[in-house]
Design a protein that fits this description.
mainly alpha; 131 residues; Non-ribosomal Peptide Synthetase Peptidyl Carrier Protein, Chain A; single chain; 2 strands; 5 helices; two-stranded antiparallel sheet
């Protein structure tokens, strides 16, 4: 994890861009997304609150933290249920962090809605495998 001047932070996940057969790109993309989500939540909420959030998601939805990328709607719902409109702010910070980690300019995304942004990031990062 890198803490940068001006309060910006990032987590370099370029090692997840390994070209593997059999869906490996999607699995690596999901792993990178889940790692970025975890680091971002810990930076915004702190370790205890992030752990409480993960515990709630696991208990209520039977989803572990490594599976959040493929269950992003659940994360968005939980963030909204717990934090109200501030949940959207947390989602935008996650999108910004993902963009930074993938060397994609945040302003080039047509939306900062987390589920839509994830689809777009996957398409931009891996155009031949995007769904």
């Amino acid at each position: 994890m890198n803490i940068m001047a001006g309060g910006r932070f990032g987590l370099n996940l370029h090692s997840f861009d390994i070209d593997v057969e059999g869906g490996g790109l999607s699995e690596n993309f999901d792993t990178a997304v889940s790692s970025t989500i975890e680091m971002t939540l810990r930076l915004i909420l702190g370790d205890r609150t992030a752990e409480a959030l993960y515990s709630h998601i696991s208990r209520e939805y039977n989803i572990d933290r490594k599976s959040l990328a493929s269950n992003i709607q659940i994360l968005c719902k939980v963030l909204h249920d717990i934090f109200g409109d501030s949940g959207k702010v947390i989602q935008r910070v996650i999108v910004r962090s993902l963009c930074e980690n993938m060397n994609i300019e945040y302003g080039t995304l047509p939306t900062d809605d987390l589920p839509s942004a994830l689809s777009e990031l996957h398409r931009l990062r891996h155009p031949s495998t995007a769904q």
